[in-house]
C-alpha cells in the first residue's frame, strides 16, 4: 500500500468515526487522539476556544497542553491568541528561538519541555469553532508533512462539527445521528466525497424522494446501497 492510499484510508476512517460520534465532545476527543496518532512529531495535542475571559482548553491529551495554553492567557501572547481567519495556521518551529512570542515560548520550552508548536483554526464557511494545538517534545520540529496532516485533521473536524451542530439543531436523537454518520461514511467512500458533500447528498435524496433524511440514511446504513433519484 503506497502512502497516498494509506492516508486516504486513515482519513476516511477518521471521517466515519467523527460523523458517528455521539456528541461534540466525543468528536473533539477523536480529533485530539488522531492528532497525536497521525502527526508524526506530535506528542501532545489539544482543542481550545478563545473567550472574552481568556483561552479555555476544552480537551487536551495531557497537562502539558493545558498549562501551555494557560500561559498564553497569563502572559498575553501566543499562537492560540493570534490565529484567526487571516492566518489560519500558525507555526512556531523552534520555541527556543521564537521572536513573535518570546516570553511565552521561552517558558513553554524551558518549563514544559516543548520544542515546536502549531495552532490551526477550526473553521468552516462563516463559522469559527476554536483551534487545534499540536506540540512536540524538545528535539523535534514539525515538518511540511506534519503540517499537511494537521491541517487535514482540522479541516475534517470543522466540516463534521458544522454538520453535527446542524443535526443537533434539528433535534435528531442519538440513534438517528449514528445512522446518518454511517451513511455519510458509505457515501464518502463510494462517491469519493467530503463529509459536507455526503450530507448534502443525503439532503438531496431526501428532498427528491420526499422521504425523511433519517429514513434515507438508515436505509443506506443497513443495505450499504445508494438510492437513485431523478
TrEMBL record:
<protein>
    <submittedName>
        <fullName>GAF domain-containing protein</fullName>
    </submittedName>
</protein>
<keyword id="KW-0175">Coiled coil</keyword>
<dbReference type="InterPro" id="IPR036388">
    <property type="entry name" value="WH-like_DNA-bd_sf"/>
</dbReference>
<feature type="domain" description="ANTAR">
    <location>
        <begin position="160"/>
        <end position="221"/>
    </location>
</feature>
<keyword id="KW-0804">Transcription</keyword>
<keyword id="KW-0808">Transferase</keyword>
<keyword id="KW-0805">Transcription regulation</keyword>
<dbReference type="Pfam" id="PF03861">
    <property type="entry name" value="ANTAR"/>
</dbReference>
<dbReference type="Pfam" id="PF13185">
    <property type="entry name" value="GAF_2"/>
</dbReference>
<feature type="coiled-coil region">
    <location>
        <begin position="11"/>
        <end position="38"/>
    </location>
</feature>
<dbReference type="InterPro" id="IPR012074">
    <property type="entry name" value="GAF_ANTAR"/>
</dbReference>
<dbReference type="InterPro" id="IPR005561">
    <property type="entry name" value="ANTAR"/>
</dbReference>
<dbReference type="GO" id="GO:0003723">
    <property type="term" value="F:RNA binding"/>
</dbReference>
<dbReference type="GO" id="GO:0016301">
    <property type="term" value="F:kinase activity"/>
</dbReference>
<dbReference type="InterPro" id="IPR011006">
    <property type="entry name" value="CheY-like_superfamily"/>
</dbReference>
<dbReference type="InterPro" id="IPR003018">
    <property type="entry name" value="GAF"/>
</dbReference>
<dbReference type="InterPro" id="IPR029016">
    <property type="entry name" value="GAF-like_dom_sf"/>
</dbReference>
<keyword id="KW-0418">Kinase</keyword>
